[in-house]
Amino acid sequence: MKEYSIQLPNEKAKTYSYVTLFILLINCFAFSAVIMNAADEKIKYLSLFGAITGFISLIFFLIQFYKKRLIAYRTEISFIILCIFWFILGKYLFAVCILCFTIIGFYTSKKFKVIFSADKILYPSFPLKTFLWADVNNVVLKDDVLTIDLKNNKLIQAVIEKESADEIDEDAFNEFCRNQLAN
Hints:
The mean pLDDT is 90. The protein has helices at 13-37, 41-67, 75-88, 92-108, 162-167, 170-182, and strands at residues 4-8, 112-116, 120-123, 129-132, 136-142, 145-150, 155-159. By secondary structure, the chain is of the alpha+beta class.
């Protein structure tokens, strides 16, 4: 059974990176403020560990963002640790906000792939959309632009990633789609 997987560019990734940088900075400053204003030694130590975690995360993030190194580093893991520190410190609103941002981050950082199989098309949206071939008028891949024309008068067009464009044979893909539409 033949199946095609075409990767679409993640247009939200750059925006998410800037927001991540901003939230890391806020965490660093907030933990530093708690250290300076806390009277209890336990709170100072927890805040110190939170600040250290935040600053290390910030450094790793900047190295990853600007130098394109530390690719395996996931900022979301650091956010979960920071969330735990805020929860222990009793700052539940901070903890919940960071947790929500972390969940969004896991979704935002994934690769978006459209999967064409013999019985359906899986389109990477939230939630994942499934199109049966019976619901599709036409599918064309030409000049690195994927076009899906649906019978309900919706048209989906997207420029595909360069990696996918290099790997896929446009003529074979278009022939595969024509065969699925004919069945």
